[in-house]
Amino acid sequence: MPPPVQRALVSDQVFRALCEEILSGTYEPGEKLPTQRALAAELGVNMASIREAVKRLEQLRLVDVRHGDAMRVRDWRDHGGLDVVAHVLFRAGGLDQQTLASLLEARRLMLRESARLAAERRSAAQARALAEIAGRIAAAPDPATAQALDFAFMAELADASGNVVFRLILNSIRELYFQRSELFEGVVADLDELAPHYRRAASAVEAREPARAASAVEKLARLQEAGLA
């Protein structure tokens, strides 16, 4: 079990401690967790904090809670959704490199297809918005602004693709992207190298050239992945 937590941090710290135990495999899928009363005693917190933490674990589908029965761990790979990604990515306070690699690969593949579809489906206003954001990225005064513009460009691309699921996935990524933005500064580390790719992607979407748009965005995403390596 994790060590007792400070009372001032209460349910949030209890949740993170238990989440880490589950995601790290300390508790195997199907295994029983200690009772809520036992957890409260071991962690040195009150029952209200435990109940709140367990509720959050249940919402993430990490545990199965049944009245009159013990809490059982669920396999997050089978039952978890995108809302689990951040907890896996930032496990134990650092970046889990395998999860990061998977996240960046999924991002690249999704953005490539978003660009392809955007070139076919975009409106005139969306084409103008992409070109405008691409121009602003080159002149971004600091990493925080560049990161915000990068996300705005990708979100506009997803909107222009006409695929609402792509947009919802990006929303999920946004939460963890800006949650620890300092860890992702490498995404926009070399704007002199990256800026032309934003412009090429925007130009290809405006020209309705799907293959060229997809290629430009894939090159951009690969360069960003290299910046985080």
Give a nutshell description of this structure.
By secondary structure, the protein is mainly α. The chain is 67% helix and 2% strand.
Low-confidence stretches: none
Kindly identify the CATH topology of the largest domain: Four Helix Bundle (Hemerythrin (Met), subunit A)
How many helices? Answer: 11
Helix and strand content put the structural class at: mainly alpha
Give the biggest sheet.
Answer: 2 strands, antiparallel
- Provide the residue-averaged pLDDT: 89
Provide the CATH architecture of the largest domain. Up-down Bundle
Order of helices and strands: HHHEEHHHHHHHH
* Beta strands, count: 2
Tell me the fraction of residues in β-strands, as a range: under 5%
Instruction: Indicate the percent of residues in helices.
Output: 55-70%
In the CATH hierarchy, what is the superfamily of the largest domain? GntR ligand-binding domain-like
Query: What's the Cα radius of gyration?
Result: 21 Å
Strand order of the largest sheet: 1-2
Look at the structure and give the CATH class of the largest domain.
Mainly Alpha
Q: How many domains comprise the coordinates?
A: 2
Task: Identify the overall geometry.
Answer: elongated
